[in-house]
Amino acid sequence: MFRLTCRVAWASLVRRRTRSIVVVMMIAVSLWGLFTMEGIYGGMTEQMINSAIRSDSGHISIFAEGYRLDPDLSRQVNNVAKIESQLVHAPHVSSYVKRLKQDGLVATAHYSRGVSIIGVNLLAEEKHGKLQGYIFKGEFSFGRKDRGAIIGFKLARKLHVRIGSKIILSAQDSHGEVSSVSLRVTGVLKTYNMALDENAVFLAEKKARELLAVEEGVSQLAIILHNDSQVAELQQKLRSLFPSLEILRWDELYPALLQSRVMMDGFNLIASLLVFCVAALGIFGVMLVSVLERLREFGIMLAIGTRFSQIRNIVFVESFFLGFIGCGFGSLFGAGTLYFFKVKGLDLSLFSDAFDEFGMDAVIYAIIRPSYFITAFVAVSFATFLSVLIPLRVLKKSKPIEAINQV
Amino acid sequence: MNTFLTIKHIGKTFQPDKEVEVVALRDINLDIERGAFVVLSGPSGSGKTTLLNIIGGLDDATAGEVILDGKLLTGLSEVELSGIRRDHIGFVFQAYNLIPVLTVKENIEYIMKLQGRSQQECDVRCLEVTQKLDIDMLLGKLPNQLSGGQQQRVAVARAVAATPKLILADEPTANLDSKTAESLMNLMQRLNEEEGVTIIFSSHDPLVIAKAKHSIILKDGKVIADERTG
To answer: How many Å apart are CA A252 and CA A240, to the nearest integer?
Structure first.
């Protein structure tokens, strides 16, 4: 019987080609738009999160207790070797870096500003967060004898410095004395992490230790994992091993980014609901007309011995076919478009100033998540199911002979 | 007499707006033999189609009983009635009423499929019936690609293929020219004789009436004549 149901439903779709194509197109175009929007917005959020992880927090950061509230040189992570021995053997860890940080002042001949001085090992940062990918101007190097500095692009703008410009970096060292160093700008970074782009001055770790008179210890250990699903597990493990340290996840360090992800998911959900309402109303309209205009046909079927439940199944299967094919085409177009934007990126450089203001890249790389397609399939199936309930109710109220006599 | 169908005190009143009653049938009593070739005739509005619909379980009677092959149809549920229509009754309508999205073959096989017959069985029976009705060359066509006469033959084939005990034909020749109508009637007569199916026509076509072995005449919802000639 199921084969007959499918055969009659399929025959009805094929032989009412125009109607079927209209419904399929309606579903496909709605889903295509929805997938594209979800993938682009998702990509935008993930890029911001990814930037923060790569350039600063890693998936997990380790600080000395109290450092985040009062970032003083006296609050350093000192048992670095012990921590490193754990990280080297942890299978989830992809890479980690050590950073020495201190607030200070940068001055040029005309301007001065408060900055965050970050002593780093460029080679390690290159392997860790591929920081060189953020180089906007100049080079990813501190030059000969480590006398260079790499600064954020917004800071460079505010200081009116260019590659090769001289800057004086001053900070309080570990003895409480003011110490200075003269550096030349070798590179400008655009990380889309506003804190870094506006305030960061990167210099060689060795140079930073000289400036701050710190021989050992680090301010931050940033760890990147192979898979972000293992973050909580590693955090727990490290916390149990080093209870005196502050061990924080990226979302604890950048709660605003997590909120923007949640907000974007909520926004996508609302957009999805709207799209599905529109699609469901469209399918409902078409199926209602389709059932009503076929009352006579269904009446004939009832008259010659088809049970109402069998006709109901035919209508359900027909609407399911429409939904399934529409979903298939929508997923195909949507996945194709998202793949294109995932590889090539959606270039919105025309609005780059606005994007810079919000710390976002003007080239957005879409993401593709299986959940988009699974949710859409379930929702379309549900929408098509609901859309035929009222037309079927109309049919159930009609007697076969009344239905046959419909003109 | 081997009674196949008994109609006892059947009455039918329509209430289109609940104030005005239209009495379509009044106290109809009939006995029809197994394998009979029956014609219900009478002027328009005499109740022929209403009576056929009640016999076929497509409409409810206001009063009375219909007993088909010993089984009381009155009061059965819609599911039970659809089972009886599927397994025991074949319908041939004035307007053919083929399923428009199915091909001729699919239309003919449809009821057999509902009965749960295998595809092989359907193929054999379909070929046998269509050859008998001379429509075997039309199997792949859709109803809207056929002439009126061809559609009516397909409707007969659909009704016959499922091997019903009873065929109800409501003015089957009304939309056909006289030559096609005669050919269809000869065919129905042959099926009646060869397959032993009881056939009840409603018609006011003299050609159909002339072929009947049992003629029932209705007027204003009453039986005014009930004659057996065969």
So the answer is: 18
Higher-confidence position of A295 and A115:
A115
Within 8 A of B100 by CB-CB distance, chain A residues are 15, 297
pLDDT in tens, B13-58: 987 666 778 888 999 999 999 999 999 999 888 999 999 999 999 8
Helix or strand holding residue B219 (H, E): strand B214-219
CA atoms in the 13 A half-sphere facing the CB of A356: 15
Task: Determine if residue B60 is left, alpha or beta; phi over 0 gives left, psi from -120 to 50 gives alpha, anything else beta.
Answer: beta
pLDDT in tens, B70-114: 999 988 888 899 999 999 999 998 888 899 889 999 999 999 999
Chain A residue numbers with beta carbons less than 8 Å from the beta carbon of B160 are none
The reply to whether residue A304 touches residue B86, judged by beta carbons under 8 angstroms, is: yes
The domain total for chain B is 1
User: Which bin fits A58, alpha (ψ -120 to 50), beta or left (φ > 0)?
Assistant: left
CATH of the domain at B174: 3.40.50.300
The answer to whether position B200 is within a domain reads yes
- The answer as to whether B160 is a domain residue is no
Sequence-ordered alpha helix ranges (H) in chain B: 48-55, 78-88, 104-114, 119-132, 148-161, 178-195, 206-211
Domain that holds residue B22: 3-97+165-228
Of the candidate ranges A15-19, A154-158, A246-250, B196-200, the one whose mean pLDDT is the lowest: A15-19
For residues A232 and A235, what is the distance between their CA atoms, to the nearest angstrom? Answer: 5
The half-sphere exposure of B158 on its side-chain side, counting CA atoms within 13 A, is: 35
Mean pLDDT taken over chain A: 88
Chain A residue closest in CA terms to B85: A305
What is the bridge-based pairing of β-strands B222-228 and B63-68? unpaired
